[in-house]
Amino acid sequence: MVLLPALLLLQVVFISSQAQKDRLQKKFFLLEPQKQITDALAACKRNYTDLVTIYDQVENANHSEAVVKGSYSCSWIGANGCTWSNGDPVTFINFSRNFTEERCCGALTAHGAWECFNCSSKMYFMCHKQDHILISLNKTWIEAQLYCTKNQSNLVSITNEMENERVKEAVNGSDSVWIGFQYNYKVVWSDDGYSHYKEDVKAACLTFLPNNCSTRSLSTCAPLCYKRFIYVSTEKKSWEAALNYCMSYPKKDGLLRIQSEDDQREVERELKRQNITEPVWVGLRKSRLFGFWIWSSGLMVGPWTNWQDGRKDPETSYFCGALEKNNGTYMWSDKDCRLELRFLCEVK
């Protein structure tokens, strides 16, 4: 049986949804000093959550304004429209001044800069297994990649300046040669966010704000990081065990409560980002003493609610609440408290 202290039950109160409006909303941080993209991504993941994902025009405008007000020339965000032929994301760039942001395949010039070519063009190419191997055959980018894979390798990937210099030396003065760089047809976000916002975030490599910045060969920008306040468990527990976990672990602040549409929106984004389709426990609990629903923190549920079937009948429902996906959205539902489900904690 799941019990809440009687004193807690007697202290149930309403808290204004306006006062709690931004409780679960992500917080954003512009970091100093400016960094290369690999260092920027590492700093965001180490100290916060990740580089920012942009979901709509308002967020894009607000972030761009913050960059300008902070006197930064540019700021890294989490959008990436490029990959290497082995599937790894592009985290280092060495574009030439003539590089054009079009969907194309990448080649390395004799001077070590990257150029954008039509993928059906034919040229020499470089495979990489343990060593860099220049293949003196004229092939399209796809043909070159197939040649490399048939020989247990891939077109070469370049992740830093030192590797770029080694590949340049292996080219040994040849004309431009294919490398493994390619544009995708969609933006991929570093935190795996499910954002469909495309107006100002094109499928470009290492995207940054403001998006009218004309230089695509910038080596350093200010990282624009975000921190989220929702923890999604990987293990499954009963409701009571989930409550104990969220209350006892450092940087956790109890099972999640959802008090507004803003809270619900943030929760849905996080569940979609992690591709969660199964039910997950939240802090919903029905008082056995009084028969109404409360949050595990002792706060009354409402006035805003999101039940699957409207207001719950206190005489027929189970005593613990979960989020459950229904027709593409996550609704509240009552569940047997003994069920073992994944769960959501609030993060301090």
TrEMBL record:
Cited SMART domains: CLECT
Keyword Disulfide bond found: yes
Domain of life where this protein originates: Eukaryota
Signal peptide region: 1-19
InterPro entries attached to this UniProt entry: C-type_lectin-like, C-type_lectin-like/link_sf, C-type_lectin_CS, CTDL_fold
CDD domains, sorted: CLECT (cd00037)
Gene3D superfamilies: Mannose-Binding Protein A, subunit A (3.10.100.10)
Keyword check for Cell inner membrane: no
Record key words, sorted: Disulfide bond, Receptor, Signal
Domain C-type lectin: 28-128, 139-224, 225-346
UniProt xrefs under Pfam families: Lectin_C
Protein name: Macrophage mannose receptor 1 isoform X2
Gene giving rise to this polypeptide: LOC113064621
